[in-house]
């Protein structure tokens, strides 16, 4: 059985025989989990763990089942779209390999529809059941799609105290604080993280320069589609005092390093390799990627989520204004 909370992954293993009738496990919060057997042909069983007894049976040599109750039924409803997405992932890979832009656009519309449905469904459940053991899970479902975590701060206060003080709740609170602290016009928070070669590098080392603080991951297709533009901008603006600092939400160092090489990211690349709970991402309230912040030489955030040609246009405007203001 595997599950995750507070940016930590857990796995419990038991040997089942005729004498074993129950298994008791204490966890720090209600959480989604998957149950697997050592039979690779048996599909994993998706369940929700809380302060209740789960009755799990093996119906056949190829199927596990769980006794249905209101919690498991609601959990299944909230996660129904996840099963649909899984069916489309192979198609995404095929279309991407063929560079089928029309097919990818249509598939993107499908994913957008699923995302909207997830938001509406989980928000409706949360509003109707704010004290449920599934409240934190439902909150996480709809809040994970927001680009500005500060926008869900009022909903967070509706969660039960146990949820706010849970490992996931504390991470969410840090993201909300981070989002509130990185509005345009605020001072960018300093940090230090290891580079791809293991050297600790801090944001303060780029004081006096314009810096694009970029959040991405090797597995994020939209992130990597931005990189060719970043490469062009970096070549054009580096001599003017512009730098890029990319923070990866990867967990696999080899995948991270390979993506850096393939995308020709010849600038500073940092990560603590703990995925979506990356400490800098939490500090800056980053929930979805790609995300970025443009920081001026005084360390003030002057732009957010500059994509496509908007970054180059913004920097050209900045440097043109500097030239025009300089004494002749």
Name the descriptors.
single chain; 328 residues; alpha+beta; four-stranded antiparallel β-sheet; 41% helix
Shape: globular
Structural class from helices and strands? Answer: alpha+beta
Which band does the percent of strand residues land in? 15-25%
Mean pLDDT: 87
Sheet with the most strands, sense and barrel status: 5 strands, mixed
Q: Which range best describes the helical content: under 10%, 10-25%, 25-40%, 40-55%, 55-70% or over 70%? A: 40-55%
Radius of gyration in whole Å, from Cα? 23 Å
- Poorly predicted runs are none
Separation, N- and C-terminal Cα atoms: 70 Å
- SSE arrangement, N to C: EEEEEEHHHHHHHEEEHEHEHEEH
Strand order of the largest sheet: 11-10-9-12-13
- DSSP helical segment count: 11
Number of E-state strands: 13
Q: What do these coordinates show?
A:
The chain has 11 helices and 13 strands. Helix content is 41%, strand content 18%. The radius of gyration is 23 Å and the shape is globular. Strand 9 (210-216), helix 8 (221-237) and strand 10 form a beta-alpha-beta unit. The chain has helices at 70-78, 80-97, 101-128, 135-143, 153-156, 161-164, 167-181, 221-237, 253-262, 279-283, 310-325, and strands at 2-5, 8-11, 31-35, 45-49, 56-60, 63-66, 192-194, 200-202, 210-216, 242-248, 268-270, 291-295, 301-304. With 328 residues, the chain is α+β, with helices and mostly antiparallel strands. The mean pLDDT is 87. It has a 5-stranded mixed β-sheet, covered by helices on one side. Strands 2-1-3-4 form a 4-stranded antiparallel β-sheet.
